[in-house]
Amino acid sequence: MIVLEVSNIRKNFENTEVLKDISFELAQGEALSIIGSSGSGKTTLLRCLNFLEKPDGGKIKVNGKLLYDGDDHTRFSEEEIRERRLNFGLVFQSFNLFPQYTALENVTMAPLLAAKEGKKGERDSAIIENGKALLDKMGLSDRMDNYPHQLSGGQQQRVAIARALALNPNILCFDEPTSALDPELTGEVLKVIKELSIEKTTMIIVTHEMAFARDVADKVIFMDEGVIVEQGDAREVIENPKEERTRQFLSRYSEG
Amino acid sequence: MFITVTLSLLEGFLGTIKLFGLTLIFALPLGLIISFGSMSKIAFIRYPVKFLIWIIRGTPLLLQLLIIYYGPGIVFSNNIWGSGEGGRFIAALVAFVINYACYFSEIYRGGIQSIPIGQYEAGDVLGMTKTQIFFKVILLQVVKRIVPPMSNEIITLVKDTSLARVIAVYEIIWNGQTFIKSAGIIWPLFYTGVFYLIFSGGLTLLFRYIEKKLDFFR
Ligand SMILES: Nc1ncnc2c1ncn2[C@@H]1O[C@H](COP(=O)(O)OP(=O)(O)O)[C@@H](O)[C@H]1O
Ligand SMILES: [Mg+2]
C-alpha cells in the first residue's frame, strides 16, 4: 500500500531552484534512503515534507489524502499546518532536544500537550508509560531522568528518535542522523534505525552511510542539484548504478 | 548625631529605592516591547525603534534627565511635570524608565536571538503551537541567558539613581551631602556608600541564587 506520494515538488530560494520536479512514492513499511552530495537539496526536501518549508509547486499525498497542492492557493492556518505535519516525524542532524527537560520529558511533552488540547484520547499515565517504553527500546532505560547535556551525542539522538516516535507519525524522516556524531557513536544510532526498519516503520533516511543505505533501506534515491538522478532498489542502485553521475558520487565513498 | 544621620539617610534611601523599584516595574516590560519592535519584520517599526535605542544608549543618562525635565517647559513654555518634588520625581522616573527599557531591550533581544532556530523547528515538527513553543521551550532558555547581563544592568541602576539629584530629586547622597554644609562633617557620605554596598550586595546574592537555580540545564 502506498503511504506517501510526492509529485513534481519544486522549491526556489530567491532565484535558485533547489528542488526541481521531485517525484517518488513510498509504500507502507518501506525504508527509503536519500543520498547525494551536500547542497543537492536533501534537507530541503525533508523540510518541505514536514512543512518547515513551503514548496513552490507539486503535490504531497499521504494515505491518499492531499496534504499539499501547489495549484491550490488557499493559505493554511497554523492549525491546519500543525495537523498536516503530524503525518511526518523529523529527526534533525543536530538533535534539537529541549535542554531544560529530561529525556523522558522531551519524549512526552508534545503528546501530553496534545492530550490536554483534547486531540488524543490517551490518558497522561498511558503517554508516560509509552514514553518510557520508547526510551527503553532505544536502550536508554537508565537515562530517562537525565538532561540532554548529561547525555552523549548518540544518546541524545536516540532520545530525539523516541521523541519523534512518540507522536506515531505515518512517515519518520531522518536528516543525516549520524553526521553530527563522533565516529564511534554512529553505530548505536544506526542500530536503532535498523531495528525500526525490521519492525517495518515507514522511513525516509538522508544519509552518507552508504553501507547502511544498501543493507537497511529498501529503496534509494540519488539526488544531484535538485533532481532525482536515479532511484530504485537500494542494493541495485548502490552496487550497480545506471547513471554516470551516481557512479561518480558513489566512487567517492568506495575508496574508504 | 549618628542617629540623626542614620534617620536622614534612611529617608533618602527610601527615595532611592522608590526610584529603583518603579524604574524596574515599568522598564522591564517596556524593554520587552521595545525588543520586539527592534526585531520586527516591518521596517517602519524596526528602524525608528533602533534609532531610539541608539540615541538613548549613545548619550549620557544625565543629559537625558536634564532634557526630559527642562525640555517640555522650554519648548511648550509649560512645565508638564507639575511643580515641586512630586513633579521632579516623575520626570526623573520617566527618564530612567526610557533609558533602562532601551538597555533591557538589547539584553532581551540578545537572549531571544541566541536561541537556535532548531529549538523552534523541533517544536514545530512536534505539532506544538507557537505559543506553546514560546512558553514551554524558549522562555526559560532566554531567562537563563539574560540573568547575568540583567543582574549587571540592575546593579548599575542602583547606583545610577543618584543621578536624579541633578534635577533635585531627593535621594540618599543628597541627604548625606547636606551634612557637609549643615554640620561640617564628611563621614555621612561614606555612610551612604555602606547603604549602596549592602543593597547591591543583596542583589548580587539574589542573582547568584537565580543563576544556581537555572544551572540544571545548559
Ligand atoms: N533558507 C535557505 N535560503 C537560501 N538558500 C538555501 C536555504 N536552505 C538551503 N539553501 C540552498 O539550497 C541548496 C540545497 O540545500 P540543502 O537542501 O540543505 O542540501 P543538502 O541537504 O542536500 O546538503 C543549497 O545550495 C543551499 O545553499
Ligand atoms: Mg542537508
* First and last CA, distance of chain B: 53 Å
The main β sheet of chain A shows up as:
6 strands, mixed
Described by the principal axes of the CA atoms, the overall outline of chain B is flat
Task: Give the quaternary arrangement of the chains.
Answer: heterodimer
Q: Would you mind describing this structure in some detail?
A:
The complex is a heterodimer of chains A (256) and B (218). With 256 residues, chain A is α/β, with parallel strands linked by helices. Chain A is built from nine helices and ten strands. In chain A, 38% of the residues lie in helices and 26% in strands. Chain A has a six-stranded mixed β-sheet with strand order 6-7-8-3-9-10, with helices on both faces. A four-stranded antiparallel β-sheet of chain A has the order 2-1-4-5, covered by helices on one side. In chain A, helix 5 runs parallel beside helix 6 (183-198). Chain A starts with a strand and ends with a helix. Chain B has 218 residues and is mainly α. Helices cover 81% and strands 0% of the residues of chain B. Chain B has eight helices and no strands. Chain B starts with a helix and ends in a 5-residue tail after the last helix. The mean pLDDT of chain B is 93. Classes of the chains: A alpha/beta (256), B mainly alpha (218). The A-B interface holds A 50-52, 78, 82-83, 85-86, 88-90, 92, 94, 96-100, 109-110, 113-114, 147-149, 163-164, 167 and B 116, 118-119, 121-130, 132, 136-137, 140-141, 144, 216-218. Bound molecules: adenosine-5'-diphosphate and magnesium ion. Adenosine-5'-diphosphate (ADP) is lined by residues 13, 18, 36, 38-44 of chain A. Adenosine-5'-diphosphate binds at residues 13, 18, 36, 38-44 of chain A.
Q: Keywords, please?
A:
heterodimer, A: 256 residues, alpha/beta, four-stranded antiparallel beta sheet, 9 helices, globular, B: 218 residues, mainly alpha, MetI-like fold, 81% helix, flat, binds adenosine-5'-diphosphate, binds magnesium ion
